[in-house]
Design a protein that fits this description.
Nitrilase/N-carbamoyl-D-aminoacid amidohydrolase; 6 helices; alpha/beta; 13-stranded mixed sheet; 261 residues
Amino acid sequence: MVKAWSVEWLEGLLPGEAAWEEIAGQLVDARNDILVTNEMPFGFWQPTKRPFDSDAAREWVSLHERALDSLSRLPVAAVISSRPVLSGKRLVNEGFVLTQGRYEFIHQKHYFPSEPGWEEETWFELQRPGFDVIKVAGLTVGVLLCTELMFVEKARHLGKLGTDLIAVPRATGTDHRLWKTAASMAAIASGACIVSSNRVGNRSESDPVFGGGGFTFDADGFEIASTSPENPAIALEIDTAITSAAKGRYPVYVKEPRLTS
């Protein structure tokens, strides 16, 4: 049995500050567990406006690079997160896992919103396509980065690869309805547990307000728990026997159609 943690972390978070020390203290008895962070968790959210700001992007990239050491020191077996990485004239949003300080690539974000507060289509591109799985702390894990959760066929694909856990780092607003509906459907379609984390707060009145509300769903699509200001870190126990059995239930077992000539 492995636990996976969902959290809500403050907008503008910097490693080494008081808030970071509180985060480490929230992970009680988590040394054998997986932590799923929010999307690109450090500093203030940058892709709020057009055009792409190369100076701000480079600073954000540098901050996340420096923060890898702090992430690796958290009292958990593995950390699943994402970070901005320079790529040509824009960024990529790279999902990764840190296990005992070892960095391993998982997935780059494919789908980018384009609206005030979330002008990611202008800031990001895709360099390495693919939705693959990876072994983490004894679980088969896939990652859907924020908006990707809305595309249920990607969750189904990860389920076909045997995924036990779909980790969903997010940077979303205060309305959780669509996200929880999408998480439930992703679990139903994949037979995997869903663990998602989100940032909370905002930098200024002109910037988006992030709504926290990390959540966990079991492999049957039922919500188990959500984070809150009073409870900013929650854990879901994942039993691989249950997620394996879920692969044989409806609608996960339904096969893709085969065209005949």
